[in-house]
Amino acid sequence: MFNFSKRPCFGLDLSNLSFKIVQLKKEKGKLSLSSFIKKDIPKGLVEDGEIKKEKELSSIIKGSLKEVNGRSLQGRRVICNLPEERVFIRIIQLPKMKKEEIDQAVKWEAEAHIPLSIDEVYLSWQVIDLPANNSNQIDVLIAASPKKLVDSYMNLLKESGLKPIALEPESVAVVRSLISPNDFTPTIIVDLGISGTNFVIFSASTICFTSHIRISGNLFSQVIMKELKVEAEEANKLKIKIGLDKTKGEKVYQVLKPIINDLAKQINDYIAFYHDHVGHIHSRNGTIKQVLLCGGDSLLLNLPSFLSKQLDMPVKIGDPLINILSDKKERLAVSNELKKPLAYTTALGLALRPYYD
């Protein structure tokens, strides 16, 4: 989506408060980690996915290119994410038609599903493979993002001395990172980050729905600060050391519990919405069977077990290295190197793209 070239490159995951860079290498038919870095950025340079101070941010990115861990970055070609809250992903249905007619039909139909004029967005689409019994219609996955936003990301990358190859919605990169190509289990991915949470429903080999909510790692810390009357540094320590482990700290548990209850409710509501509409999407049995957690703040102690009880379904931490390293020992070694591989989920998925196209 939003493709400008298919040549190999590295992944850059940009968020409100940090960015991560990952480059992979392929030797003797095997993928492995080549380079990586995680860099915090000052508040206000990026807000709600919008670049506010391009020159300051490009200067930080330029400097970080020389500071990567592992090998020096090979080349300057890059695949960057687009913020999920600013990308509109939908599945639309069209009558069966010739391939050359789809593009115009998608533009007409997309206007009813996108809260912006079609002239204000860049639009990308792909036809979803359907079983034979759906021969009278085709399902098309569309993705649209404001031209102003996309252009600002392109300008930032060029100003940083990089060569943008593609801009990709976060959800696409996350699915590529966490879901094996032969895994068809209907899944909701909950990407819990420092500034927000993304929901991604993946079923029948495609992304069906995405959504963004404000529950975040920052919110956890802010509530601990407010309720327990502690400074930011201490709140972050309590969040990491205690989390939802009541035996380690009853007060922290009680402070976080209402937020996680709200998170569970929103996951449930989102799953229910999907199940109510799945018959209108591609007429397949897409009942959600599991929850995969990712994002740096998904490591909150006891979060999987807490959510599993609330949702009455399996909840597990995703493995962002599952499609890169087949050997468990190698994955463990790289996990130790990255320290928190879940924080690199999007960057790893972006870096994987050239090996999937």
Rg (CA only): 20 Å
Terminal-residue CA separation: 11 Å
Helix/sheet category: alpha/beta
Number of helices: 10
- Could you describe the largest sheet, including whether it forms a barrel? 6 strands, mixed
How much helix, percentage-wise, in residues?
Answer: 25-40%
Order of helices and strands: EEEEEHEEEHEEHEHEEEHHHEHEHH
- Numbering strands along the chain, what is their spatial order in the largest sheet? 6-3-2-1-7-11
Give the overall form.
Answer: globular
% residues in beta strands: 25-35%
Task: Report on the architecture of this protein.
Helix content is 36%, strand content 28%. A 6-stranded mixed sheet has the order 6-3-2-1-7-11, sandwiched between helices. Strands 14-13-12-15-16 form a 5-stranded mixed sheet, sandwiched between helices. A 3-stranded antiparallel sheet has the order 8-10-9. A hairpin with a 3-residue loop joins strand 1 and strand 2. The radius of gyration is 20 Å and the shape is globular. The termini are close together.
Tell me the layout of helices and strands.
Elements: E1 10-14, E2 18-27, E3 30-40, E4 46-47, E5 50-51, H1 54-64, E6 69-70, E7 77-82, E8 88-95, H2 99-110, E9 121-128, E10 137-146, H3 147-159, E11 163-169, H4 170-178, E12 187-192, E13 197-203, E14 206-213, H5 217-228, H6 232-241, H7 250-277, E15 290-294, H8 303-311, E16 315-317, H9 328-338, H10 345-356
Parallel strand pairs: 1-7, 7-11, 12-15, 15-16
Antiparallel strand pairs: 1-2, 2-3, 3-6, 4-5, 8-10, 9-10, 12-13, 13-14
Helix pairs in contact: 1-3, 4-10, 5-6, 5-7, 7-8
